[in-house]
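Below is a filled-in request sheet from our internal design queue. Each sheet records the structural input a requester submitted and the sequence that came back. We keep these sheets so that new team members can see what a complete request looks like end to end.

REQUESTER: design group, bay 2
PRIORITY: normal
MODE: inverse folding
CHAIN LENGTH: 385
BACKBONE (tokenized):
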């Protein structure tokens, strides 16, 4: 065999070299992948699960920016934000990019319930049997359909069911209202809110005098106002969005209808319109209702950097990023370890995280545990119309 060895090497040297190079590349790539996902690289990325340019995107970024800065103060673990690629136009595109980026250990997103429901299987990597799954923590998605939807999904905002039941109790006990009307956006969000509120309000001994769906862009708001003028409810619950809430309020004002208006958590943006003065809306955070030192620190730093008050999207995104980062600092060095660590938040293995909106721990269905709902009254709005 020794006499044939030189000929063998001459014949097979190039294929062997190519094979060795390919093997070396695979090993190196695997090492980089393991290092990135295990937290051994210089920086660990937290992905932005939101569509660039869509409502809430900038607020999500701002909240995450403050969270990563806060986490990096602790050292030596360093965090950075991984944004979606430019030109990303769908939630699925965003989710695929973040899932397939080995530097991303966890994702903050998505802020909308509909998009979140769509991308949960992507983050769970169902198509590959979970081989490349990554945790996603939604800051504000509140659909009841998300409770327990996946081992890889968590959220730091209460579900619509919790919020609607809270509002029903508040309307009955604090306002003393006994007659309510509901005008809801005709989608899963609006229908869930309407159904849960009506059930809880009815069980308290009060009455919902009307349930009326609407469609954005084709609704005759004056007709709704005239109906409410005849029914004379004490309260109008409006689980819709901010633009539609403002149109509804304008129609009520034109018809001289006097009632208590309460928007769902999707109506926070109406606070920028003067027509909404005196109206209420449901939120998961408000800077005037902060009860923790971490919340005060967040609010102060936000105003110093961005020269405005933080909104719900920024605060909840801060909390989601803090839950990921603190869990990594406490020992979660891979995507799968992070998932387990989040499930153990509030235990000796992974102490509870203090966020802008309060203490962060998760129930068995991965919903936030014990997070309060805030009902905010809109004051005078300067320079708005």
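RETURNED SEQUENCE:
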């Amino acid at each position: 065999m020794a006499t044939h060895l030189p000929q063998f090497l001459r014949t097979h040297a190039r294929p062997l070299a190519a094979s060795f190079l390919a093997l070396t590349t695979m090993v190196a790539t695997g090492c980089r992948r393991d290092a990135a996902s295990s937290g051994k690289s210089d920086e660990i990325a937290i992905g932005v699960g939101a569509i660039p340019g869509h409502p809430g995107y900038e607020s999500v970024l701002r909240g995450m920016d403050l969270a990563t800065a806060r986490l990096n103060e602790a050292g030596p673990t360093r965090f950075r934000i991984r944004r979606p690629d430019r030109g990303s136009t769908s939630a699925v595109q965003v989710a695929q990019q973040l899932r397939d980026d080995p530097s991303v250990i966890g994702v903050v997103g998505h802020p909308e319930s509909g998009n979140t429901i769509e991308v949960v299987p992507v983050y769970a990597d169902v198509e590959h049997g979970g081989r490349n799954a990554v945790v996603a923590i939604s800051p504000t998605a509140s659909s009841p359909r998300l409770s327990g939807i996946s081992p890889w999904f968590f959220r730091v905002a209460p579900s619509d069911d919790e919020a609607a039941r809270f509002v029903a109790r508040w309307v009955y006990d604090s306002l003393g209202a006994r007659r309510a009307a509901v005008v809801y956006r005709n989608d899963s969000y609006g229908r869930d809110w309407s159904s849960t509120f009506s059930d809880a309000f009815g069980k308290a001994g009060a009455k919902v005098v009307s349930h009326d769906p609407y469609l954005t862009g084709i609704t005759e708001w004056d007709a709704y106002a005239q109906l409410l003028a005849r029914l004379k409810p004490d309260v109008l619950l409006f689980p819709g969005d901010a633009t539609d809430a403002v149109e509804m309020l304008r129609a009520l004002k034109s018809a001289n209808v006097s009632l208590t208006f309460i928007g769902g958590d999707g109506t926070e943006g109406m606070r920028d319109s003067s027509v909404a003065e005196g109206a209420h809306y449901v939120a998961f955070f408000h800077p005037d209702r902060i009860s923790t030192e971490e919340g005060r620190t967040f609010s102060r730093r936000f105003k110093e950097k961005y020269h405005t008050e933080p909104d719900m999207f920024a605060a909840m995104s801060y909390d989601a990023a803090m839950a990921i980062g603190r869990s990594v600092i406490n020992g979660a060095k891979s995507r799968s370890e992070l998932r387990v660590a989040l499930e153990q938040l509030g235990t000796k293995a992974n102490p509870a995280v203090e966020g802008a909106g309060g203490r962060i721990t998760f129930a068995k269905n991965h919903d936030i545990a014990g997070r309060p709902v805030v009902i905010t009254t809109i004051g005078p709005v300067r320079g708005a119309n």
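SHEET NOTES:
- The first helix runs from residue 5 to 38.
- DSSP finds eleven helices and 13 strands in the chain.
FILED BY: M.R.
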